[in-house]
Design goal:
The structure is a single chain. The chain folds into 2 domains: 2-243, Rossmann fold (3-Layer(aba) Sandwich); 251-374, 3-Layer(aba) Sandwich (Rossmann fold). The strands form 3 sheets. A 7-stranded mixed β-sheet has the order 3-2-4-5-7-6-12, with helices on both faces. Helix 1 runs parallel beside helix 2 (33-45). The protein is α/β, with parallel strands linked by helices. It is built from 13 helices and 14 strands. It has helices at 8-18, 33-45, 58-70, 81-86, 88-96, 121-124, 139-156, 181-187, 211-243, 268-282, 300-306, 328-336, 360-374, and strands at residues 2-6, 23-26, 51-54, 75-79, 102-107, 132-135, 160-165, 174-178, 251-254, 261-265, 287-292, 294-296, 312-317, 345-350. The chain is globular, with a radius of gyration of 20 Å. Helix 2 links the parallel strand 2 and strand 3 (51-54).
Length: 375
């Protein structure tokens, strides 16, 4: 293994290459475009033996990778913001069809008005499409999460979206370690799907069904989505044993000892939150950072386990759950902790929209404001 200095988008493309995908479809959109460009270069030079399909829209991108996945290919694509929203119809189709697609979503604010910089509205708005969603906080985690995504997607036949923050990670240079190919091959063997379309085998895909057949398909997807949480934990541990790389499983917990105030967030803000925790600890405030790595399935039982009696949960959202007075993480946390409403106090704020800077001292001040609310 060796360390290199490069961008988050480069880390993503290198991991996709090492995963030995069979097919890539892409349409350019800022700040994702360089992922697709790098993969096109790898395929053009012969470094990656795969088919590359440029298409006319993101809707066609997802349609193309869904078709390729249905015939048994290991596939990849990437998008951002409006591109992800344009895919929305086929995201449902891919999940309902139990296709093991992996996609990188480079988080970017959605319009209107237009904004090129990061928040999480694009990713969280796809919450109920049936996709597993991971959120990375560093270039190293982007690289490692691609392999985890394929491992999980192909084990349970549910597509996985790897989210990471536009420009803050996608275009920032950070050192990260590349894993030797033989180790990747051990963790992620050649894809052998249990079922695929083939002209000699007959069968159809995504056909019309009556309600008595439709409901079991959808309920099975819902049940299996919950099971994906344990798979993620197991495969994260397996990857750690092979590589030494560890980012947590469903959560990454920072300074848990004696925690009373738990600061919940995800993405690059959660990495910056460690500085805020350090600031608060120096002031004698028993703060702990909770970095959510897995947004879907939402790890409610794990969140409850991490919170002791009389805990105070401060939720930092980089999105709006319009009509609720807060963000999506706050809504999710309140829902899963409802049975502990007499033990755990919860409040939250929305911040960082459209790339608003979130340094550690600012996050610490926001935490203090939320502590006052809970008093």
């Amino acid at each position: 293994m060796k360390k290199i200095l490069d961008t988050g988008n480069a880390a993503c493309a290198l991991a996709v290459k090492a995963a030995k995908v069979d097919m890539v479809a892409a349409y350019p959109i800022t700040p994702q475009t360089s992922v697709a460009e790098k993969l096109a270069a790898y395929i053009g030079s012969g470094e990656l033996q795969a088919k590359y399909l440029p298409v006319e829209s993101e809707h066609s991108v997802m349609s193309a990778v869904a078709a390729a996945a249905a015939v048994g290919a290991r596939v990849f694509t990437a998008t951002s913001s409006q591109g992800l929203l344009y895919m929305h119809e086929i995201l449902h189709y891919a999940a309902g069809g139990r296709l093991s697609i992996v996609m990188a979503n480079v988080n970017r604010a959605v319009c209107a008005p237009w904004c090129l910089y990061v928040d999480h509205q694009d990713g969280v708005s796809q919450r109920d499409t049936g996709w597993i969603q991971l959120y990375a906080a560093s270039n190293q985690e982007i690289y490692d999460s691609i392999f985890l995504a394929y491992k999980v997607a192909e084990a349970i036949n549910i597509p996985v979206m790897v989210n990471y923050d536009g420009f803050l990670l996608s275009h920032s240079m950070m050192p990260f370690e590349i894993v030797d190919q033989e180790i990747i091959d051990e963790f992620l063997p050649v894809f052998q799907p249990d079922w695929r379309l083939h002209p000699d085998w007959g069968g159809t895909f995504g056909n019309v069904t009556p309600s008595d057949e439709y409901a079991p398909f959808r309920n099975r997807l819902a049940d299996d989505m919950i099971k994906a949480g344990e798979l993620i934990k197991n495969y994260a541990r397996e990857y750690k044993e092979l590589t030494g790389h560890w980012h947590g499983d469903l959560f990454d917990v920072y300074r848990p000892e004696g925690g009373e105030y738990f600061l919940l967030s995800m993405g690059s803000m959660a990495a910056e939150m460690e500085l805020a925790v350090d600031i608060l600890r120096k002031e004698g405030i028993p703060a702990t950072g909770l970095r959510l790595r897995v947004f879907r399935p939402f790890p409610g039982a794990e969140l409850s386990r991490l919170l002791p009696p009389d805990a105070k949960l401060l939720v930092f959202d980089r999105n709006h759950a319009f009509g609720t007075g807060g963000g999506v993480l706050l809504s999710e946390a309140k829902s899963v902790l409802f049975d502990r409403k007499d033990q755990v106090k919860i409040t939250g704020q929305v911040m960082g929209l459209g790339g608003e800077d979130l340094p550690g001292d600012y996050l610490a001040q926001k935490a203090r404001e939320m502590m006052e609310v809970l008093k």
